[in-house]
Amino acid sequence: MSENENVVPVAGGTPPATTGPKAGRGVVGRMARNPLAVAAVVVLVAVVGVSIAAPLLTPFGPNEVIAGLARRPPGAGHPFGGDGAGRDVLSRLLFAGRLTLTGAVVTVVVAMLIGIPSGLLAGYHGKWFDSVSSWFANILIAIPGMVLLLAFIAAAGPQTVPVMAVFGVLLSPGFFRLVRAAVQSVRGELYVDAARIAGLSDARIISRHVVSVVRGPIVIQAAISAGAAVLIQTGLQFLGLGEQGKPSWGQMLSDAFTNIYSAPYLVFYPGLTIAITVAALALFGNALRDALQDRPVRRRRRVDRARAGAASDTTRDVSNASAEAARGPAGEEPLLSVRGLTITYPGDTGDRAVVRGVDLTVDRAQVVGIVGESGSGKTQSAFAVLGLLPTEARIAAGSIRFDGSELSSLDRKARGALRGRRIAYIPQEPMSNLDPSFTIGYQLTEPMRVALGISRAAARNRALELLGTVGITDPLRTFHSYPHQISGGMAQRVLIAGAISCDPELLIADEPTTALDVTVQAEILDLLRGLQRDRGMALLLVTHNFGVVADICDRVVVMQDGRVVEENDVTTVFAAPGHDYTRMLLDAMLDDTSPRPPLVSTTAGRN
Amino acid sequence: MTDTTEVGDPMLHVEHLDVTFPGRGWRAEPFRALRDVSIDIAPGECLGLVGESGSGKTTLGRAILGLVPASGGKVEFDGRRLDGMPRQERRRLSSEIQVVFQDPYTSLNPSLSIGDILAEPLTASGVSRRDARARVGGLLDAVNLPSDAASRLPREFSGGQRQRVAIARALALRPKLIVCDEPVSALDLSTQARVLDLFIELQERTGVAYLFVSHDLQVVRHISHRVAVMYHGEIVETGPGNQVTSAPDHPYTQKLLLAAPVPDPAEQARRRQARHQLAGGR
Question: Is the overall model pTM greater than 0.80, yes or no?
């Protein structure tokens, strides 16, 4: 029913464009490609259709006692045979579907009517309503459902609709919590702020920006709740607490059990029907969730490998040649030498290369900057050296040599041993690289104990010493702090302390100052420069900021679209850029542009 | 080019504005995000607002937009008090004050087409659907996007293009003031320069005023007629753009200026020296 709504997020009469409805087609398309989903939908449609059309499908009334049919095995005229009281099993099964489905619909509708509006309100407005409604939801969850239902039946009778409505109330917290959480996460989005500033009313913001987010999860929750409703309902009927006088699956099952010795097959029909219906509901919910998650499965891995073999064979000669050329005049091998590095990702139309034939050389105690805009492949190149590329990425060609040994031929373990001992790394987002649930001290000492094999006390002393080295004024206090208690600049100092704890020969820094304020950036750059000089460490710095390059780097590598377009001394690059792209980037810097003159009345007068 | 900063009556007048956030936790100290902030913006003027993270510059923008309540002082726009204005009434003002946010990825609803995103503020203000659609083409044109962009989804665009969409959305209601909250800091260098030029061009063409919030002194210098510097929730310096960004009075602004690295190794080494001296001589 509602899966159609998910198909068209671009509502409102948008003319269909060639690329437009891509997002919408996805959900139903992915559902249709999932055989389990298709089977589940077919079963559900069949159950509903057959129940509605029951009088047309069978000539016998559900409660009609036919002489001589009692416990008669399946045969002509009565394909499922007769039950203990001589009624036709097939017609009872078909008619019973109506009661079950009515019950399930009542439950789901009641649960949604209570859960969704209250969830929307609680999530969007928060404040007192949120507290009160969450409190009620928690109470409902705490009540044992079966006991309450039995009490209700004892007091008010076994009528299906009221009983299942009560069950709907019990299930409403599921919808409430789901919707509330989804709305809370959307409420913080900037586009909701923008809608508010654009003058949209709350009702309109909710219907337009919020409901579209919770639609999918609600359908899933509805399917799961319907399954639960069918089960609880048949359970009550089995116990003899169902509505009297109307056929039901649970009652049929109960009847079958009383005849289990004389006609054991009677158990199968209601049992299978219940199992298949509930399973179909659950599978439908699961399939919809998978479809909404929007994760295309990669299937071409094997082909990739075969192709990779071929590709690297052809490029190997080239990379060998350039490796020779890369050796310095003295013939001494550089600390890091990357030759012909090509990194590909599987894409919709074959492999997509994000780094193509990159050469990179870092000498000992040298600071090399990789500059480029987003998507230039600068971070990917650095991650390839670290061996930290995502699993779907593949080094299709090229060699990475560190201190004379080829890195790409090392196994994972040897690679891991190199990282954190001889090659260290500083990330861009210092905060997200610290675990909020452990103290700084723990996060500094644990890796040290593993990498250096030192005792806890020795690691602690070393960590305190390092925190002092990176310019933290009160090392002991920081040591015992949790990440949320320190600033971003401090967090970056902590990560630098961790990175240099093993005296690495090469430090790779990926935009180490981008997330920091300029004044903090200047301090961190001072710190990095000092550490690099004192320890004779090589530094490979990935950045988009030419100012940072000018501040700290000896050599510069400029990347564009996965290729190195220029490599030179820092002074040469700034004084006489050799490539148009470098010139364009330098021109885009706003340093030498003239400031805007003050506003004079003529400009203002145009208003 | 003498003292031309007084251009008629200010359109936006913020006086002694305080914004306080309740502290987290039981009986925690409330956090004073803004203290005694006063700024003026004239029609057609761009006021740059510089500061580091946590200085309160974004909060000032949000207070003007009505997204956070003021706890003291006043915000006047065209002679009307904005602070404490009921939401119903505030909504009607939406055509006059608009916003461009920092992050072009989360400021556009990913499930709406560009055309719907741009038409939304128009239909909310009572323009018919058909007229709104017709104006979307003009808006896309104003920010140099192709008109077939209307039928596409945000994810098909790059960061710079998305920011153009956000600018077009802000322009849709022909506002008098746009609060620009770090609108170029998530963009690449070359894109940043082009988007800034678009801001300037639109201002010269439409006479809209900007409150341009940024952490980058050079960006602010490029686009602002006047610059205000924020530090710990207070405005420490205000003046003509050229003066504040090249010969600032306040030590904090001086520090900020010297901390920004320049793309010239020799000059950068000199500035580093100057910065160390400033820090040492304090």
Answer: no
The H helix count followed by the E strand count for chain B is 10, 10
Interstrand relation of B12-21 and B72-77 (parallel, antiparallel or unpaired) = antiparallel
The model's confidence at residue B40, banded by pLDDT at 50, 70 and 90, is: very high
Phi, psi of B31 (to 5 degrees): -100, 125
The sign of the CA dihedral A137, A139, A144, A150 is negative
Which pair of structure tokens corresponds to residue B245? 């960004």
Q: How far is CA A556 from the centre of its chain?
A: 36
* Cβ neighbourhood burial of B4 (10 Å; 0-12, 13-18, 19+): middle
Is residue B140 a contact partner of residue B146, using CB atoms and an 8 Å limit?
Answer: yes
State how far Cα A340 lies from the chain centre.
33
The answer to whether residues B19 and B1 touch, using CB atoms and an 8 Å cutoff, is no
- The span from the CA of A597 to the CA of B7, in Å, is 14
Residue B44, H or E segment? none
Higher-confidence residue: B133 or A305? B133
Question: Which residue in chain A is spatially nearest to B90 when comparing CA positions?
Answer: A199
Give the number of other Cβ atoms within 10 Å of residue A302's Cβ.
8
Highest mean pLDDT: which of A495-504, B18-27, B35-44?
B35-44
Q: Residue A348: which of A387, A311, A305, A296 has the closest Cα?
A: A296
B159-171 and B189-206 helices cross at what angle (nearest 10)?
20
Name residues of chain A where pLDDT drops below 70: 1-26, 293-332, 592, 600-607
Q: Are strands A506-510 and A538-543 parallel, antiparallel or unpaired?
A: parallel
Residue A123 near residue A181, CB atoms below 8 Å? yes
C-alpha distance from A549 to closest chain B C-alpha (Å): 7
List strand residue ranges (DSSP E) for A283-404, in order. 336-347, 350-362, 367-371, 394-402
Residue at A414: amino acid letter = A
Q: Touching check for A488 and chain B: CB below 8 Å?
A: yes
Q: Which residues contact A185 (CB under 8 A, 6 or more apart)?
A: none
Sheet holding B80-81, edge to edge: B31-41, B12-21, B72-77, B80-81
Identity of the residue numbered A415:
R
Option in A20, A544, A604 nearest B153 (CB): A20
Spatial distance between the Cα atoms of A299 and A294, rounded to a whole number of angstroms: 15
ipTM higher than threshold 0.85 = no
How high is the pLDDT of residue B24? 67
E strand map for chain B: 12-21, 31-41, 46-50, 72-77, 80-81, 97-100, 177-181, 209-214, 226-231, 234-240
d(CA B157, CA B145): 10
Provide mean pLDDT across the span B134-154: 88
Confirm or reject contact between B264 and chain A (CB < 8 A). yes
Euclidean distance between CA atoms B154 and B132, whole angstroms: 19
Question: Residue A506: in which H helix or E strand, if any?
Answer: strand A506-510
Contact present, A146 and A236 (Cβ < 8 Å): no
Residue A42 φ then ψ, to 5°: -60, -45
Contact assignment for A190 to B103 by CB distance below 8 Å: yes
- Residue count (chain A): 607
pLDDT at B25: 66
Q: Chain A within 8 Å of B52 (Cβ-Cβ)?
A: yes
